[in-house]
Amino acid sequence: MANVSVYNMEGKEVGKMELSDAVFGAPVNEHLVHMAVVQQLANNRQGTQKARTRGEVSGGGRKPWRQKGTGHARQGSTRAPQWKGGGMVFAPVPRDYSFKLNKKEKRAALKSALTSRVQEDKFLVLDELKLDEIKTKKFSEVLDNLKVSKAVVILAEDDKNVVLSARNIPGVITASVNTINTYDIMKYSTVIATKDAVAKIEEVYA
Question: Which residues pair with 191 in a beta bridge?
């Protein structure tokens, strides 16, 4: 089992914590991590791009000049792709980019991402994260104490004061145990989790 330090909000080490190998010591499968990241990015795409083909642009019903005898190349319509104002060849149309990953693959990818953060010493555990009021400055002080600038903060349950205090800080997001995903863990250089959140992660994903 991996041992990690537990810090308080002042950035001081207050103890140690053992992490479950079932979640934080899993084999790192880079291919599955890549697929999970690509899936989330693909599923977020709107896929609403659209351009008109020659059959959809207006005009061009009349042949611009006779077939022979003008010295020009033959033309059938002024809305062919080679004309200004003409349609587009192989125009993009609305489409769905999403694809599916199996539940086991998603879970394995998440475990791989968490394990890699632990191995890189980029997984920080807080004994608790409580704020008396919504105050971005106070949350920034906690990050400064931990010497972290870009992080995903995992909470055991939604805490309005913490979530709203972190919302305006660039490079920082909050997530509950049920909403964490491989993409966010890999995107943000550090993962910060409370002791309660770690226990819940081990319970849910073990």
Answer: 123, 152
